[in-house]
TrEMBL record:
Coiled coil: none annotated. SUPFAM superfamilies: ATPase domain of HSP90 chaperone/DNA topoisomerase II/histidine kinase. The chain crosses the membrane at residues 12-34, 40-60, 67-86, 92-112, 142-167. This is DUF5931 domain-containing protein. NCBIfam families: HK_morpho_MacS. Residues 312-410 form the Histidine kinase/HSP90-like ATPase domain. It comes from Microbispora maris.
Length: 421
């Protein structure tokens, strides 16, 4: 059987196991009955059931649409209706099961998984009607005929169809959550980059314009308005379009251009995925990225041995250290000194940024986050959290210490955390 993609795979594997077990059970019944009245016909039916079971194992679930489902139901009902040609009237009156036995439930389950509970119920009705007609043609009193099998078949079709539909909905919700999470991570990354560049420049223009006065003050006021608008924009929640919704009219031509058909795009996406998962990420020495921060007022201390990290992780840690130093320049008096200490501790890299400034007032970080100022919340904590690390901010009296701890390997997104003391 072809490998089933998505959450429906276990359902189709269970149906395949059910078909094989039911086929073995039907063959056992024929063997115990000595082939019934006409063994050749009985074993021929079993052979057809075996062949069709092999066909369904190969074609389901990849080709589970209308033609295969209809053929499955027709073959099953046909094998069921051949029973009178193999069994005698006495076998039927004695309550012998049809040659197909429980194998007839296979298409009912297939319809339920592929098309939902209503289709499963319709398939169960067709099979049950064929079974009742077969019994009545054999002289069995329908009023006294037990309907347990028909009831169980209806329940199987409805329940399996309902559960399969719920499973598909759960899978789609999970995929949508993954898309929202990925969009949120990308927005966080872009917001950090904007904060480290554009927002800081706008804030500087606003502050210097107010200091200079005159026309520069008006320029500073406009820069402040643009800074506030940009902060609100990067903090807006991401919008993820459902996969089955139509794209905006202006994008349809580019998404469906003749030069890049859908299959070619799928092959390129698969190729990129394979390349990204099989290519080892290069490493970088964190010391080389921290040394440029050293100045007359910033002291950088690092061990004599390398501090290897994945290149992207090393760049993010260095950017977080740069954001911490930017906060020292922006919020501390002129002449404030800072120290950067990098070391390795038990499979993790720890970078500490300490200054001798006035410290951070209690509650100031939470207030800054509410106001959209992302220096600590995103440029530092956000970066380190994406790497699976932790951030500790200590500010008791004069001076502030920010400790960044990241693992030597890059974990999956969401494994990290943060602390505040």
């Amino acid at each position: 059987m072809r490998r089933a993609m998505g959450i429906e795979g276990p359902f189709w594997r269970a149906i395949a196991v059910f078909r094989l077990a039911s086929l073995a059970y039907a063959a056992l019944l024929v063997l115990r009955a000595g082939g019934y009245a006409r063994p050749a016909v009985a074993w021929a039916v079993v052979g057809v059931m075996l062949a069709w079971t092999a066909v369904t194992l190969v074609l389901y679930p990849a080709a589970r649409r209308g033609p295969l489902l209809a053929a499955d139901l027709l073959v099953t009902v046909g094998c069921l209706l051949v029973t009178p040609f193999a069994q005698s009237r006495g076998d039927v009156l004695a309550g012998a099961m049809p040659i197909t036995a429980t194998w007839v439930a296979g298409p009912v389950l297939a319809y339920g998984v592929a098309r939902g509970r209503r289709a499963g119920a319709v398939a169960a009705a067709v099979v049950s009607a064929a079974d009742l007609w077969l019994r009545s043609a054999g002289g069995v009193d329908i009023a006294s005929f037990p309907v347990n099998g028909a009831v169980l078949m209806f329940m199987a079709g409805v329940v399996v169809g309902h559960v399969a539909r719920l499973a598909r909905e759960a899978e789609e919700r999970m995929r949508r959550a993954e898309r929202i999470e990925a969009a949120g991570r990308e927005r966080e990354r872009l917001a950090r980059g904007i904060h480290d560049s554009v927002l800081q420049v706008l804030a500087l223009v606003q502050r210097r314009g107010a200091e200079i006065g005159g026309e520069a003050a008006e320029l500073g006021r406009l820069a402040g308005e643009q800074e506030s608008a940009l902060r609100a924009l990067v903090q807006a929640p991401p919008v993820v379009r459902p996969p089955d919704s139509a794209p905006p009219p202006g994008l349809r031509g580019r998404l469906r251009s003749p030069a890049r058909p859908r299959r070619a795009l799928a092959r390129e996406e698969t190729s990129r995925h394979v390349t990204n998962t099989t290519t080892a990420e290069p490493e970088a020495d964190l010391r080389d990225l921290l040394r440029p921060y050293g100045t007359a007022r910033v002291t950088v201390s690092a061990p004599a041995t390398p501090l290897p990290l994945p290149a992207e992780s090393a760049r993010e840690v260095a950017a977080a250290v740069g954001a911490a130093l930017d906060n020292v320049v922006r919020h501390c008096p002129e002449g404030t000194r800072a120290w950067i200490l990098a070391e390795e501790d038990g499979g993790a890299v720890v970078v500490t940024v300490r200054d001798d400034g006035p410290g951070i007032p209690e509650g100031r970080l939470e207030q800054a986050a509410r106001e959209g100022r992302m220096g600590v919340a995103r440029s530092i904590r956000g970066r380190v959290a994406d790497l699976g690390g932790t951030v500790t901010v200590t500010s008791s009296g004069p001076g502030t210490e920010i400790e960044l701890t990241v693992p030597a390997r890059t974990p999956r997104p969401g494994e990290g955390g943060e602390r505040r003391s």
